[in-house]
Amino acid sequence: MILNDKNIKDIKEKKITYVKNFTSIEETYDFNKISYLVDSYSLYVDYVPKQINYFNSIWKFRDIDKLDNQFFVLLDFLSKIFKYPHHIENGVDIFFSFVTNTGRSHVDKEDVFLVGLYGKTIYKVIENNIDYCLERGDLLYIPKGIWHKPVSATPRSIASIGFFE
Fold first, then answer.
1. SS3 155
2. Is 141:107 a contact under the CB 8 Å cutoff?
3. pTM: predicted TM-score of the whole model, two decimal places
4. Residue 47: count of CB within 10 angstroms of its CB
5. What is the helix, strand, coil percentage profile of the chain, to 5?
6. Which one of 108, 114, 121, 155 is most buried, counting C-beta atoms within 10 A?
7. CA atoms of 146 and 66, how far apart (whole Å)
8. Phi–psi pair at 56, nearest 5 degrees
């Protein structure tokens, strides 16, 4: 995991921060891997928004850090670097979609570190009117309270690491 001094300073100052090639992802989190995780651990999978054509939805499963050590390491690393206090809701969720689609504009209640796992996802950040393209291993930090919108340019999966304070 690679963060330079400027990245660390910007994140500590709650600035939107994009880091290309932040980490190497050991496994390919494509739909074969996602199917394996769901089947092996009987994961509850939710989809948003709830549409009639389910394959156009954005899907997610929560707390993958409790099952996959790679995500526990990411959560632990970021927690220690940025000194986030323990909170019961801190964790790693995976969002994925089978086809290109657009999520809703939203604001998170927690600081979010997004890590590209598979495919391409563009995050439109309304605050600074900049689009960030996340691919495998890239990181985007979005402080709580910042409006943003995900747009999947391909089928994709993203790790969302959230810290509540």
1. coil
2. no
3. 0.94
4. 15
5. 25, 35, 45
6. 121
7. 27
8. -85, -5
Q: How far apart are CA 76 and CA 115, in angstroms?
A: 14
On whether the CB atoms of residues 61 and 29 are closer than 8 A, the answer is no
d(Cα 115, Cα 97) in Å, to the nearest integer?
Answer: 15
Are the C-beta atoms of residues 126 and 51 closer than 8 Å to each other? no
Burial 54-89 (b: 16+ CB within 10 A, else e): eeebbbbbbbbbeebebbeebbeebbeeeebeeeee
Give the pair of three-digit tokens for residue 133. Answer: 């393209």
In angstroms, what CA-CA distances link 155 with 12, 106, 121, 122?
Answer: 32, 21, 9, 12
The 10s digit of each residue's pLDDT in 93-141 is 999 998 888 888 999 999 999 999 999 999 999 989 999 999 999 999 9
Q: Which residues contact 55 (CB under 8 A, 6 or more apart)?
A: 98, 99
Joined together, the tokens standing for residue 138 give 């890239």
